[in-house]
Design goal:
two-stranded antiparallel sheet; alpha/beta; Rossmann fold; five-stranded parallel β-sheet; 7 strands; elongated; Helicase, Ruva Protein, domain 3
Length: 272
């Protein structure tokens, strides 16, 4: 809607994962480096933790795009809050590509996964399983089932790298499960962007979308940092609305007052 007004090819702050708009901040680059190291060196596990909206899913997507063909299959489990038998049946289904009922006994799913991983390793491949929203995992039995995946080896090396991705609450959960925590070869911790990074992030996305000049006032970036706390998802939402309202009001650039008014409106609870 507002692209032609701001002379953009596309919207720069769309939600979702698009590697073309990836901004290589220090915290995201460090997380990618650690997780790639764990996967490419065939470690048993890795941890990615960070608050909501900091880009955990984007990091996983970037890593997936960087890995070679020998790191297959790559399974991304987005909602793990299920009983252990269903969780293992789901993983067996997506790892092997076969049929697996949700009521399949746990031992049968584990046996199927083990046999598949052995064949996969013999073929020169290494499987990767990413458990997203891992802070939703519940119960000792579930953690024990997850830990079993790291026991499958060929020649003394794991046949699979398990990546647990979740909010910071995942850390104390792992501390209560030391047998699984000890298998996490690396831990990547995402933090919010700094004010400088926030400005660079916004400018990067604008340029990628086709901007030919600055669309935000220099003073706006300090306000943007304060209003969003450097959380990329919040930055995207506020900047997208700022471009929309700026277009509607025929503004020349996005300034502090525009950002503050939109942020205040977002924070207002509408009456019933």
């Amino acid at each position: 809607m507002y692209e032609s007004y701001w002379h953009l090819r596309e919207k720069p702050f769309e939600p979702g994962v698009d590697g073309g708009f990836y901004y290589p901040s220090e915290t995201h680059q460090a997380a990618i480096l650690k997780l790639r190291y764990a996967i490419e060196n065939r470690r048993a596990g890795a941890l990615l933790a960070g608050g909501s909206g900091l880009g955990k899913t984007l990091v996983v997507a970037m890593i997936r795009s960087m890995l070679g063909e020998k790191f297959q299959p790559f399974v991304h489990l987005c909602f793990p809050q299920m009983p252990p038998d269903q969780l293992m049946a789901y993983l067996a289904l997506w790892l092997t590509g076969g049929n697996e009922d949700s009521d399949t006994p746990l031992w049968r799913s584990v046996d199927r996964i083990e046999r598949f991983l052995a064949k996969n390793a013999d073929a020169g491949r290494h499987a990767v399983v990413v458990v997203d929203e891992a802070h939703l995992l519940e119960g000792q039995e579930t953690f024990e089932a997850i830990r079993l995946l790291s026991n499958f080896e060929t020649g003394g090396r794991p046949n699979l790298t398990l990546v647990l991705s979740g909010r910071p609450g995942l850390l104390p959960m792992l501390d209560r499960n030391p047998a699984l925590e000890e298998r996490m070869a690396v831990k990547g911790m995402l933090r919010p962007l700094t004010e400088t990074e926030t400005a660079q992030y916004v400018e990067h996305r604008l340029v990628q979308a086709g901007a030919e000049g600055p669309l935000f006032d220099v003073e706006a970036f300090e306000a943007l940092q304060q209003l969003t706390q450097g959380v990329p998802r919040r930055i995207n939402r506020l900047c997208d609305l700022a471009l929309l309202v700026g277009y509607a009001e025929q503004q020349e650039t996005v300034g502090v007052s525009l950002l503050e008014s939109i942020s205040e409106e977002l924070a207002t609870v509408a009456p019933e």
